[in-house]
Predict the 3D structure of the following.
Amino acid sequence: QVQLVESGGRLVQAGGSLRLSCAASGRTFSSYAMGWFRQAPGKEREFVATISWNGGSTYYADSVKGRFTISRDNVKNTVYLQMNSLKPEDTAVYYCAAETPSGTPKYWGQGTQVTVSS
C-alpha cells in the first residue's frame, strides 16, 4: 500500500512557474514508477508525465513537453513536477499516482489545484 499526498498547487499568472510535490508513505515507494495526471473542469483526467522507479527514464505529454519536468527523490519518498511557462490551459487538479509495471495507475493522491490566470 502506498499513500500519496500532493501539495504546491495555487493561483499563478500565465508565464509563471510552480513546483508540485507528492509525498509518499510506505517502504515500497522506490519500487514504483510515478506519474502526474491532471483533470480540468468538465474534462477527463489526462496523463501529464511519468518517471521510472530510479528516475532514469521520463516521458511527457506533448502538451507539456519542454515546459514541465518530473523528478523524484527516493530518499525523501517524494516525486516532483516543476512547471514553467504556465498557460491558462494548464489549469486543473493535478494528481500523482504510483503505477504498475505496465504503467497503469494503482494508487492515487487526493489532488492539488493549479489555477493559471491570463
